[in-house]
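Re-run with default settings, no changes from the original entry. Doing this only to confirm the output is reproducible before filing.
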Amino acid sequence: MDPFLSLLHSFSLSLSDTELSSLKFLCRGKIGKRKLECVRSGGELFSILLEQQLIASDKVAFLEGMLESIKRKDLVSQLKQFVEEGELHAPEDQPDVHEKRLQKAAIEVICENVGRDWKMLMRKLGISEVKMDRIVAANPFNLQEQLVQSLREWQKWKGKDAKVTDLIRALRGCNMNLVADRVEQKLSSLNTGTS
């Protein structure tokens, strides 16, 4: 799946009707009135912009300007992050299916149990202060989302080297032993087929 299309899809899902109307208004000089009247979702609008080559994975200035105009700083920072990191890792750089399943389970437990101390955990995992600050800026009032995005950042950065054992080791290194125990319990229940 094209990472840029995935990004546009997530943007589309997060747009309110008012924001979509504003984006359509901003496109008036670029897209014909009749076409704009037919647009019912962000996805449809982005499709037209892609067709007319106004946006592309390596051509995001117009999209960035529109998102800034509707005051969606969170989406602007996601877009900038996408551009900085380039495309996501190639499939051969991803963990295997079993490891991904374990990671998903571990991340669920971590997100349910690690609160305000999430930055300490991320530092143990090697995530930079700059990346954490960017994540906080994109999700200023949502502690849970800050943690989720940080863990995703770690997964992307590590690729196939992202291991659940590293998460457990980092938790223990931060004296979050109870959370580490819960992760291990969840993983053993997955491995034995109970949950």
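Residues 97-113 form the longest helix (17 residues). The chain has twelve helices and no strands.
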